[in-house]
């Protein structure tokens, strides 16, 4: 297939929007955590947990939207656990995050195996169907690409301006950004630094879990061991790429999804010259490249990784 | 509750804190066993039996501990200098790839040279893989956690390409595996009729080396200084960049040797399931050991025992062996919290 053929095909653009969805959820979630000064390396495990519980909920006869809610609750709980260590006890955010990832994925796999002991092939569920938005889906090209997607995709794209507005136009957002830059100043305002950070980590983790849930109850219809496959780590790179801004995070996620969608299509025609494994490497290599490119302009939140203890300077 | 720094930490507390954390992890995981509908004591009995119940069980546990000592050391050395190398898994495969490249017939040496040579090329490969993240960290302040994590996936895909492509052994009946390591490079077995091999001796040897190095050498002192307080270290004239770079080469090298150990000692040829996440588990090993190189030996044996025991337990009763991963992660988090109570004294306001 020619590159041009790919770029004019509707399927490519629709796939791009679909593939961007989990990245948008994950990146927004990580962005909220980091803006509050907490690096959440639990993302990979929290996405796994979200994917597992949402799928399991539907498999046990639950409703799809409730499954999203359940995933969000589980995500928030692991966020709470994370902040218990990283915010309240103030231990290393790096090691806490890795620990949360190990714990959340191990628990997901354990629960999956315990609830479905005798199944060899992963059973399937009825996932979210694309919901054409009346009127808008009639539009040529855009209708198919943007407005005939899974409801969760609409939710992800809606969340971008919502998070942007929340961060930049509300007092709570101001406090949240400030707690990531100068927690002492927040404390001086009479706001509890630990509680605010915990709330941010819980909210962010809920987003991540919904991103994972999107994979099992919208794109695919089954849960596999190792299905998140580094998407969480890519989200962390995307946050840096986006300079901690929601709008740019959307842009980054779309760019990444474009490469992924392109990669799958080129892979089929070019596999004679380039082994497919090199295409699969692309997202990871690109993530590293993106961080290199943005490194000079990376304006880390000043208090990122710095635990806050009352009465200490 | 308020935390105030302890001026003096008694020895018993240093030992009691991680031990009680591990005990608590066992208690918490008992809840999962209850959920699975199995009797807790019988399950833990099966676990203990599977880990240490016979000479064979002990040999299997020690076999599994060998690569974990290497990856645990890799994490411990790096974390000492606050270098967050989470790429042990990728470095392990890089070491195994290098050992496969040189050890499958390209170079033939007598065993007493061949084995050190394989460890050396494995270490170099593992170190080189960590070079890019470290340079990016030092020059551009790119976070090494993310880059090392992402490189894990790249290396595994590269190994995948080699094993399905140019390195595929035509004699392997279509399985994606490389040609076997030549006989001169194979680590000798330690006990007859078990899989235990001399890789364990090498691992313990390097643990002692790492301990002596960090404890007594100038470079080791610099690593500790940079990890404890980079600003003060810089002020005292310790070269920050060079120290981090040296630490990285050691850390990556140790992780690379884990790959050689598994390849030349256990499997004999490279496959894609060479490591069931030894690189990641190494982080838990290192934290459990309080980043102490000699402690890594004990904690690697402990974690290996959990994994082997859980395998036996899941065969005996219907409990998934992912319980071992849950236990390791729980122990890691609890130890992390316990370390805090060693360094600080909790005071009620």
What does the model show?
The complex is a heterodimer of chains A (313) and B (349). Chain A has 313 residues and is mainly alpha-helical. Helices cover 70% and strands 1% of the residues of chain A. Chain A is built from 13 helices and two strands. A two-stranded antiparallel sheet of chain A has the order 1-2. The longest helix of chain A has 27 residues, at 193-219. Chain B has one domain: ABC transporter involved in vitamin B12 uptake, BtuC (Orthogonal Bundle). Helices cover 72% and strands 2% of the residues of chain B. Chain B has 13 helices and two strands; from the N terminus they run E-H-H-H-H-H-H-H-H-H-H-H-H-H-E. A two-stranded antiparallel sheet of chain B has the order 1-2. In chain B, helix 1 (11-35) packs antiparallel against helix 13 and helix 11 crosses helix 12. The longest helix of chain B has 30 residues, at 111-140. The radius of gyration of chain B is 21 Å and the shape is globular. Chains A and B meet through helix 5, helix 11 and helix 13 of A and helix 6, helix 11 and helix 13 of B.
The geometry of chain A reads as globular
**Separation, N- and C-terminal Cα atoms of chain A:** 61 Å
- Low-pLDDT residue intervals, each spanning 5 or more residues of chain A: none
Count of strand segments of chain B: 2
Order of adjacent strands in the largest pleated sheet of chain B: 1-2
Radius of gyration of chain A: 20 Å
Assembly status: heterodimer
Radius of gyration of chain B: 21 Å
Strand order of the largest sheet of chain A: 1-2
Mean pLDDT of chain A: 90
| Helix residue percentage of chain B | over 70%
- Counted up, domains of chain A total 1
Number of domains of chain B: 1
The description of the largest β-sheet of chain A is: 2 strands, antiparallel
How does the helix and strand content of chain B classify structurally?
mainly alpha
Task: Give the percentage of residues in beta strands of chain A.
Answer: under 5%
Alpha-beta content class of chain A: mainly alpha
Q: Name the CATH architecture of chain A.
A: Orthogonal Bundle
CATH class of chain B: Mainly Alpha
Pfam families (chain B): BPD_transp_2
GO molecular function (chain B): transmembrane transporter activity
Protein name (chain B): ABC transporter permease
GO cellular component, one term (chain B): plasma membrane
